[in-house]
Write a structure and sequence with these properties.
The complex is a heterotrimer of chains A (588), B (225) and C (223). By secondary structure, chain A is mainly alpha-helical. Chain A has helices at 10-13, 20-25, 30-60, 84-120, 128-147, 170-173, 177-206, 219-250, 264-281, 284-298, 305-318, 334-346, 348-362, 371-394, 396-402, 406-436, 442-468, 488-518, 581-585. With 223 residues, chain C is an alpha+beta fold. The chains are: A mainly alpha (588), B mainly alpha (225), C alpha+beta (223).
């Protein structure tokens, strides 16, 4: 196809004379920073997965020596048998790593960085150096969190939600330095997110290419924009709470200490005031990228673009007033519970609208089942389960029964794994050529997808059943309870499925690494997509465009009757198109 | 407008772009950053309000532990430094770098004195026995608690919230002083600011006014009420 | 093996299980519609050479329909749920004749305080037993929840009752057992390394048995 003049000879245009360190380590290039986030957070994803495997071993085969567990010190697992104090560290660190160091940076750190400038048509972020700092503060936070596994007394032990006063007083939790390192690490994560968010927001507002009006933005950019606003406003609250927690732990303040007048529920309010917007930080970018991929895979414009945008905005707005639904049985005023229930049920509406619009997009399409599309469709299928199971919890009387049981565990994994992680596997495969100039293996991608899809459901669906039966979360050994003993066969089934699920992920990691060197060379526009990023060579060069392209239309013009092919890029000028106002106004 | 000049890069995207807000990146970025700062201080102040109104007893009356007079002077100093910041901004808008340098220096001095006085105040308070965990045993204030002048039940919360809120505000002032000093040395002194390019002054000024505003709120709720 | 909610042993179980079933049916319909629709579209509209997709940007009527139906359903669900919520947890929901029992949670045990012969807590004839909750059948029970150290959660699955126990707060929760028998009370909020073994036995007696037990237990306690 013919490339637009704007995109031409970028590789020759920019003479890149930066040193190796400037180019790949202390880089200010948004693409390199995105890739740095990618490598680091994939590593943490693996760490989080390994922690989960150990938990599943204990739950499936309690009291039996874990294969390979002999390498763990006696304070964790003497003779390979997991101790209760190690088990609750596993619970805590699995949640912490997955939420703060895997899913959130994978969605926001990787894709906001990589996609925003490429998709809106600009050379880099508004503040490249702040962007670099965002990565390095994240890395410091991650290293601090990782190191807490190796300190005396081990890592934090109060669950990823760190409910005070268990987390605030070391004599209650039994961990000391580990608890403090958790707080320190979260403060770094907060700082990193704030620096990132202010960059994304500024860039999207001010640096869009000529013709890239608000309603020509791809939904991935819209969702990342809204996510950045949520992150900007939610993370400082978490940082503030973590600072107070750290002070309680170290310098003897009494914020969460009921003995001295502090309030235990204060932590929960602060945490969930952050925590519920956080839930949408963890899903909105996935929704946005899935929208891009489904439209591409179906070869059809996204169904109801505007209502998709309003749904994102609606979810983000309602996301601020639903935090109390985590606290229905916490001792909070029950009347508040009623109002939080209503806002929570209402938030189901924009989510439903999005699902129907994705289906509307596939309807009468011409669907191509490339690996990203498989993951995107699986996202819709699994997100529906996670979304619908949320309605059970939103209904306060039912929540009284299933709160803090495996039903919740199932729900959140259907949203975070079935939702976010499937979207991420799709998105990584989709934009991999633009990052590295090579394609990931299609065949192994499909093998990975199907194995993941099957074992994922085998792992998490039965948790609904054990949860309904009343199995509480975070139990080291549920067999302590007579009424939970008959469920042991289900736990064994879940554990074996989880091991197979983990093993299947290794296919993805091998495919990822192998393709870096041996993958098929990627063409410029392998998926025949419309976005601005595909006007660049693969991989996209430093500085992106010599001169940014002009934008003539929205991002989802697939199967347009105006052209013979079934896609019509945003940067392609048809004879009928007029130049955007900003382009002609610029005096160059 | 010439494209090559660095001054243009300062004030707007260096390439044709779709109309965004009529605000250049640095300033917009600062506004957005301040939004997150609002949330941060809202968390601290909200905590203070919740703890104070839910406290298991009455709160210490103002003026017993804290020295209001010296802090009132400190508040005045910080407000003056906000005024001098405005002067510096106005000077560079008029294209008078010399006057701008003078007022920027005054602002830096004002901010630095504020931090200095706050450190002095902290040392004084700690000496008297007021610490983040409440009142130190065997100190001057511990006697007041024993006599009933100060409420024993809430002194822990008083210490926790006082030191956290004012401490983080002091940290913000310190950051502001450091950034202004950096700009003064690297930009203002070498004469890099002009009538056309004063983005740095305006941006740091926004931050400075915000920090000032937060202090006025903190002074009111912590010292006066 | 057990594939449904636990045995029903309190007055809350009926409405909660009914609501659960209702939500299961509503979400089940939505679930089947979406999944069947997805599979149908995948098969029917798979790519075939020489064909182009139908070019459309959406349909306002469809949007309105699939916004309104979930919205109405959700609001209705909210109203029904709130009706029961107020009965179970509302400020004035605790029946006046409820029998009081003190439950004090600490790492990692439940200390159950019984009101003794006078039926009132906070009197000298109160006595405390560890990890055993005895209640009479068919009579509202109000538990006065307090915590020694960290947050625990009072949970009896067969009663469908759960309430966090928060240090520094006095929280009351009520229930009414309907079937005599032995059940388990568990902690459902992570409370430290012994969280998994913080359990107590729950005995639901007939009123006569309960009175007899109470007499004997009070006697043993006073010795």
């Amino acid at each position: 196809m013919t490339t637009v003049a704007a995109t031409a000879h970028t590789e020759h245009g920019h003479h890149d004379d930066r040193s190796f360190i400037r180019k790949y380590i202390f880089s200010t290039d948004h693409k390199i920073i995105g890739i740095q986030f990618l490598f680091v957070s994939l590593f943490f994803l693996l760490v989080g997965g390994l922690l989960a495997m150990q938990m599943r071993w204990q739950l499936g085969f309690p009291g039996r020596p874990m294969p390979g567990g002999g390498i763990l010190p006696d304070t964790m697992a003497p003779g390979g048998v997991i101790l209760p104090e190690y088990y609750i560290q596993l619970v805590t660190m699995h949640g912490t790593f997955m939420v703060f160091f895997a899913i959130m940076p994978l969605l926001v750190g990787v894709f906001a960085n990589f996609l925003i400038p490429l998709k809106i048509g600009t050379h880099d972020m508004a503040f490249p150096r702040i962007n670099m700092w965002s990565f390095w503060t994240f890395l410091v936070g991650g290293i601090v969190m990782l190191s807490s596994l190796f300190v005396p007394d081990g890592a934090a032990r109060a669950g990823w939600t760190m409910y005070a006063p268990l987390s605030a007083r070391h004599d209650y939790s039994g961990a000391s330095i580990g608890q403090e390192l958790w707080s320190v690490s979260i403060i770094f994560v907060g700082l990193s997110s704030i620096l990132g968010s202010l960059n994304y927001i500024t860039t999207i507002i001010n640096n869009r290419a000529p013709g890239m009006t608000w309603f020509r933005l791809p939904l991935s950019v819209w969702s990342l924009f809204i996510t950045a606003i949520l992150g900007l406003l939610a993370l400082p609250v978490l940082s503030g709470a973590a600072i107070m927690l750290l002070f309680d732990q170290t310098i003897g303040t009494h914020f969460f200490d009921p003995g001295a007048g502090g309030q235990a529920l204060l932590w929960q309010h602060l945490f969930w005031f952050f925590g519920h917007p956080e839930v949408y930080i963890l899903i909105l970018p996935a929704m946005g990228m899935v929208s891009d991929i489904i439209s591409n895979g179906s070869r059809k414009p996204i169904f109801g673009y505007h209502s998709m945008v309003f749904a994102i905005v609606g979810i983000a707005f309602l996301g601020w007033i639903v935090w109390g639904h985590h606290m229905f049985v916490s001792g909070m005023n029950p009347t508040l519970g009623s109002s939080f229930m209503v806002s929570t049920l209402v938030i189901a509406v924009p989510s439903a609208v999005k699902v129907f619009n994705w289906m509307g997009t596939m309807w009468r399409g011409n669907i191509r089942f490339h690996v990203p599309m498989l993951h995107a469709v699986a996202f819709v299928a699994m997100f529906v389960i996670g979304g619908l199971s949320g309605i059970f919890m939103a209904a306060t009387p039912v929540d009284m029964q299933i709160h803090d049981t495996y039903f919740i565990v199932a729900h959140l994994h259907y949203v975070l794994f079935g939702g976010s992680l499937f979207a991420l596997f799709g998105a990584i495969t989709y934009w991999y050529p633009k990052m590295f100039g090579r394609m990931m293996s299609e065949g192994w991608g499909k093998v990975h997808f199907w194995l993941t899809f099957v074992f994922y459901n085998c792992t998490f669906f039965p948790m609904h059943i054990t949860g309904m039966a009343g199995e509480m979360r975070r139990l080291y050994d549920p067999n302590q309870y007579t009424f939970l003993q008959p469920l042991q066969p289900i736990r064994v089934f879940i554990s074996i499925s989880a091991f197979l699920l983990f093993a299947s992920q290794l296919i993805f990691f091998v495919n990822f690494w192998w393709s870096l060197w041996k993958g098929k060379k990627a063409p410029q526009n392998p998926w025949e997509d419309n976005g601005l990023e595909w006007s660049l060579p693969s991989p996209a060069p430093h500085g992106n465009w010599e001169r940014v392209p002009n934008v003539y239309r929205g991002p989802y013009e697939f199967s347009s009757p105006q052209v013979a092919e079934d896609y019509l890029p945003q940067y392609k000028k048809l004879p009928t198109d007029r130049e955007p106002a900003a382009a002609s106004a610029a005096t160059h | 407008m010439t494209h090559a000049a660095a001054t243009v890069d300062q004030m707007q995207p260096p390439f044709p772009a779709e109309r965004g807000l009529e605000v250049y990146n640095k300033k917009l970025g600062m506004w957005i950053f301040l939004a997150s700062e609002v949330m941060f201080f809202a968390a601290l102040i909200g905590t203070y309000i919740i703890l104070r109104f839910g406290a298991p007893g009455e709160w210490a009356r103002p003026g017993i532990v804290l020295n209001i007079k010296i802090t009132a002077f400190n508040t005045f100093l910080l407000i003056c430094s906000s005024v001098s910041m405005v002067k510096a901004y106005a000077a560079i808008q008029d294209g008078d770098p010399k006057k701008m340098r003078f007022w920027l220096l005054m602002t830096i001095l004002g901010g630095a004195s504020f931090v200095g006085i706050q450190v002095y105040e902290y040392m004084h308070l700690i000496e008297h026995g007021f610490v983040p965990s409440g009142v130190r045993d065997g100190s001057e204030l511990a006697e007041l608690v024993a006599k009933g002048t100060l409420p024993a039940a809430t002194m822990g919360l008083y210490g926790s919230t006082f030191f956290t809120m004012t401490g983080f505000h002091g940290f913000h002032v310190t950051c502001g002083v450091i950034s202004m000093t950096y700009l003064y040395l690297t930009k203002a002194l070498p004469g890099k600011y002009s009538k056309q390019d004063y983005g740095g002054i305006e941006t740091v000024g926004l931050y400075w006014h915000f920090v000032d505003l937060v202090w006025i709120i903190l002074f009111t709720i912590v010292y006066l009420i | 093996m057990h594939w449904w909610l636990p045995f029903k042993a309190s007055t809350f179980a009926g409405p909660i299980d009914g609501l659960f079933l209702a939500i299961l049916i509503i979400t089940g319909i939505a679930f089947v519609l979406v999944e069947v629709g997805l599979i149908w579209f995948i098969v029917k509209y798979r790519a075939r050479p020489g064909r182009k997709a139908f070019y459309t940007h959406g349909n306002t009527r469809a949007e309105v329909i699939w916004t309104t139906i979930p919205a109405v359903t959700m609001v209705a669900l909210g109203l029904i749920s709130n009706h029961y919520w107020v009965q179970m947890k509302g400020r004035n929901s605790i029946p006046a004749n409820a029998y009081p029992i003190g439950v004090h949670a600490k790492q990692f045990e439940w200390q159950i305080t019984y009101p003794g012969a006078d039926g009132k807590l906070g009197t000298p004839d109160d006595f405390t037993i560890r990890n055993q909750l005895h209640v009479p059948v068919g009579r509202p029970i109000v538990v006065h929840l307090s915590a020694e150290d960290v947050i625990h959660s009072f949970y009896v699955p067969q009663f469908r009752v759960r309430q966090d126990v928060v240090p520094g707060m006095d929280i009351k929760a009520w229930f009414q057992a309907t079937v005599p028998g032995t059940y388990e009370l568990g902690c459902s909020q992570l409370c430290g390394l012994g969280h998994y073994r913080m359990r107590a036995q729950v005995f639901v007696h007939t009123q006569e048995d309960f009175d007899a037990w109470m007499k004997q237990a009070a006697q043993e306690a006073s010795q």
